[in-house]
Amino acid sequence: MRRTLSRPDASSRGPHLVAGRATALLYATLAVALVAAVTAAVSIGTVTVPARDVWQVVLRHIMGDTGGLDPLQDQIVWELRLPRVLVAEVVGAGLSVIGVGLQALVRNPLADPYMLGITPGASLGAVLVLAIGSAALNGLGVTGGAFVAAVLTMAAVFLIAQRSGQLTDTRLILARVAVGYLAVAATSFVQLQTNPNQLAGIMFWLMGSLAVAAWADLRIPTVALALGVVWLFAQGRALNALMIGDDAAAGLGVDVHRFRRRLLPGPRRPREPHGRPSRRVAGRYLHRRYRRARAAVVAQTRQARGGIVTRLEFEGVSIDIASTRIVSDVSLRIAPGEMVGLVGPNGSGKSTLLRSAYRVLRPTGGAVLIGDESVWSMSARKAARRRAIVTQHTVLGAEFSVEEVVAMGRTPRKRMLDRDTDRDHQIVEQALDDVRMRWAAQRSFTTLSGGEQQRVLIARALAQEAGLLILDEPTNHLDVRAQFEVLDLLRHLGMTTLTALHDLDHAVSYCDRVAVMAEGRLVAVGIPADVLTPGLVHDVFGVRAVLDTHPITGRPRIAIASAAHRPTTAAGDDESTAALPDPGHTK
């Protein structure tokens, strides 16, 4: 959804300038703390060297003028302590970089390189070399043994984690726990079988030492650290998106499967099916009255949105998960500017169908089209510029402010290393204004109520400037007022909208059309009042239903009761004749 944006004034840029200055101050503080820590580490020891003398030695070496330095201080600072301290700092920073990436990939703030099994594997390999001897292993040194064992352990972790054909974060963590403890147990067993002289060397190696670290040891770790930092900044938006879930990240233009496969080995997705299926759908309800009514709505939408309209279509979509057919031959078209509700009992395949439009689950058969182009033939970024999504469950893997969550909607519009511009800030502010959440811009997302969080997620979708909005149960877990607020907002956005709903009354009251799913198939499509008949509701949901007019809004509404319910009279006597119509004989 495009908007005409004027140049922001100074007042609108104030909060962003303050946030930028706060970030710069944080970085400066961390840099000063790092320098102070290095200085203290070099100064303190058996022989104390004053901080002033430490910096004198360092600066003289940097300038290439070492004449006049105290030989003892020069050797202690430059030749012994400084290389060891810098090696420790660089290695620690490298582990931090890896940890940040893993935390985003597995959405766990406690993730670290240890979860891949590298550390226990390397320890086992080194201990085996020390216990058996390098000569018995064809000259394989301690470093080589540690590297080989670390690689084999990590491979075992991934092999076990993806044994069922699907690599998940939980499987990865559990596999690491199993393999890691097995490696630790094997290391302890080897230690118990060695003589005391060998055991002393093994314990010394396991505890680690920087006593032999020199300047030459800094080259490879420093290059690796620099590449890791550049990668973190380049992929920062994608990693932030992954912290809010795979589905949400896919909706923001991150090719989740490819991104993870580049970093964590895993199974490949099936190829996209070739060809387009027929448009036939068994049991589909077609209504001429709908087509006439929608013509005026579409024309109104074209005018309201400057001719930018987006159509979504599922053409004979079938989806298999773990060799089980979940969605079968679903064909559905959502016209530009139309709001369609996707309803059905739990397990009917609603969320699975939507995830095929997210580019998370690739259809086994059929095609998902945005306009005339398959969503799976587009790049992830292009798809995210065409459609925005609001997923069913959003649990942030890190602390984000409301403004930061909405700003993630700009991800598909930005290239690597692009910074947010004044226009991006204004789009975010406008999106917050549209959902009436500007007041909470600097608050933590997790401190908001359920209804407020849902508004923020819709604002994030608006910030994408897409013409198509897909939502999975947006009123789930919200109180009554919040449900109406969210649905009123969706109704007045003027976007092409497909939303999965559980409340049939909401579908009747707010949607232009409803699509009913049961057992993975589309069984009915059309105007809510024509489709959600008592007979269909009973057949699909197993409940009794009556359609009438709401006395306050004047909109159609649907009353639901258990199939076993029998109405009572005013006196409380059970009536033998039900006031609700017999579903089996209702047209």
Task: Annotate the secondary structure layout.
Blueprint: H1 10-43, H2 51-63, H3 71-106, H4 118-132, H5 142-161, H6 169-193, H7 196-207, H8 219-234, H9 236-242, H10 246-251, H11 256-263, H12 288-304, E1 312-321, E2 324-334, E3 339-343, H13 350-358, E4 365-370, E5 373-374, H14 380-386, E6 387-390, H15 402-407, H16 422-434, H17 450-463, E7 468-472, H18 480-493, E8 496-500, H19 504-510, E9 513-518, E10 521-526, H20 528-531, H21 534-541, E11 543-549, E12 556-562
Parallel strand pairs: 3-8, 3-9, 6-7, 7-8
Antiparallel strand pairs: 1-2, 1-4, 4-5, 9-10, 11-12
How would you characterize the overall build of this protein?
50% of the residues lie in helices and 13% in strands. By secondary structure, it is an alpha/beta fold. Among the domains are: 112-194; 288-526, Rossmann fold, CATH 3.40.50.300; 533-587, no CATH class. Strand 7, helix 18 (480-493) and strand 8 (496-500) form a beta-alpha-beta unit. The longest helix is centred in the N-terminal third of the chain and has 36 residues, at 71-106. The chain is elongated.
Short description:
The chain has 587 residues and is an alpha/beta fold. Helix content is 50%, strand content 13%.
Characterize the overall form: elongated
Beta-strand percent range: 5-15%
- CATH secondary-structure class of the domain at 288-526: Alpha Beta
Number of strands: 12
**Adjacency order of strands in the biggest sheet:** 6-7-8-3-9-10
The low-confidence parts are 1-13, 266-307, 570-587
CATH topology of the domain at 288-526: Rossmann fold
The CATH level-2 architecture of the domain at 288-526 is identified as 3-Layer(aba) Sandwich
Q: How many strands, which pairing sense, and closed or not: the largest β-sheet? A: 6 strands, mixed
Head-to-tail CA distance between termini: 41 Å
CATH superfamily of the domain at 288-526: P-loop containing nucleotide triphosphate hydrolases
Based on the structure, what is the oligomeric state of the protein chains? Answer: single chain
Mean pLDDT: 80
Number of helices: 21
Structural class: alpha/beta
* Secondary structure: helix percent: 40-55%
Rg value? 31 Å
